[in-house]
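The data layer described in this paper is built around a simple, fixed record for each protein. Because each token names a local backbone shape, the row as a whole describes the fold. We quote a single record here, exactly as it is kept in our systems:

***
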Amino acid sequence: MYGDSCSNFLNRVECGLIDGVITTHVIDEVLFKILTAKASCYLDKTTIWDIKDKMKDVSFSKKVYSAVRKYADYLDELTSYGVTVLPVDMGTITRSVELGEKYGLLTTDSIHLAAMMRNKICNIATNDSDFERADLVAVWNP
């Protein structure tokens, strides 16, 4: 559904037409989602507890981490094209609590917003409509 527009966006980042910025928190969130999605291909039940238990099996872990490794390699490539990776510190976390409460965001989203505010970033490319409640940023959808 969004594949082409997302790919086009990332191509523009890779070409240096758009400044790409992510946080360590974004990386964690995406890698976790990739891991759980891949794990769900092999499990009947996919609660976090089922995944954690099955991860003890090294062959299962290798299968699941193949997708994680592929994306991590892509992130490494993106940083070589100039994408900046920002850290998330306690100041950002503290501010995220205030922003989450004010705009009714889940903690992950409020951390993203706080990191943006801390670094004077006012544009976000996302499919998450919750960011539209935050009048601090312009939301760009694919």
Summary: The mean pLDDT is 90. The longest helix spans residues 58-80. DSSP finds six helices and four strands in the chain. The radius of gyration is 17 Å.
